[in-house]
Amino acid sequence: MSVLENHRLRDYLDHCVALYTKEFNRSTQDLPPPFDLGLSTVGSPVFEKQPGQDAEGTKILLAPIDDEAWGREWPLRSQAGHEVFHWLFTPPAVYPGIYHWAHEMLANEMSLLCVRKSGIEDAEDYARSMEIGFRAKVQETTRVKMLTTELHRDDGATYAWVFGRAFSVGRQLRDAVGWEHLKGLATSLEDERRPDLRGWLAALPRPLELRAINILGQPHPNWV
Ligand SMILES: [Zn+2]
After folding, report:
1. How many Å lie between the centroid of ligand 1 and the Cα of residue 207?
2. Would 63 disulfide with which of 40, 116, 176, 181, CB 3.0-4.6 Å?
3. CA 74 → CA 66, 88, 128, distances in Å?
4. What pLDDT is attached to residue 97?
5. Ligand 1 mean position to 1 CA, how many Å?
6. What's the gap in Å between 103 CA and the centre of ligand 1?
7. Which CATH number covers residue 92?
């Protein structure tokens, strides 16, 4: 059976979409047109979207990578949980331009939540192994470099170098402001284009804003 005919994977994607819908208070009518599922040929998952407001033709291409410890199915599920974030939140106006560390961080947190809420045997062990993996990558970039570097999608390129630092900063922010406020980073956008970290901070209740500034530093014009 090919990877894409694997009904368990389809079921898992349905589970992800349902969980995103609930976490972000969407109704089924608010969702973008359904995505097509395919296989990536570049060794990493790819999210493809037609430019413009019409999200018809969106594709999620998963990379069939065999993990030494976990085999193939869990890595496919974790990629799926991440890419569903882009289907829902990557602004159509910027595609294929700018991605953002905060969106990568939330895509990974939502993927972790999709794993944990899946009810599949070993889910908690796999989620912990994902977290260990993110923590192991934290030194791949600094907080300041992450906050000031635009992520552009180029063919074959990956922004996985921000995943570790984004996870670390994201967890600190979650502890400081709470998950409900952290999720606001998904929809805080400048003119419907790039994610707006400064706007998100300014919209927090003042005590939480101060806690978040303790983690991020003072808002700076060089922030992407
Ligand atoms: Zn991503």
Report:
1. 30
2. 40
3. 9, 22, 12
4. 64
5. 27
6. 7
7. 1.10.390
pLDDT in tens, 190-200: 887 788 999 99
- What is the CA(159)–ligand 1 centre distance, in A? 8
Residue 109, in any domain of the structure:
yes
Contacts of residue 153, Cβ cutoff 8 Å, sequence gap at least 6: 95, 96, 97, 99
Q: What is the pTM of this model?
A: 0.94
Q: Is residue 22 part of a domain?
A: yes
Domain count of the fold of the chain: 1
Residue 13 corresponds to which tokens in the numbers above?
């994607």
In a domain, 124, yes or no: yes
Q: What's the CA-to-centroid distance between 83 and ligand 1, angstroms?
A: 6
38: containing domain: 3-216
How many angstroms separate the alpha carbon of residue 107 from the centre of ligand 1?
A: 6
Centre of ligand 1 from the C-alpha of residue 162, in Å: 10
Is residue 221 in a domain? no
Residue 62 phi, psi dihedral angles, 5° rounding: -95, 150
104 C-alpha to ligand 1 centroid (Å): 5
Q: Tell me if 98 sits within 8 A of 151, measured CB to CB.
A: yes
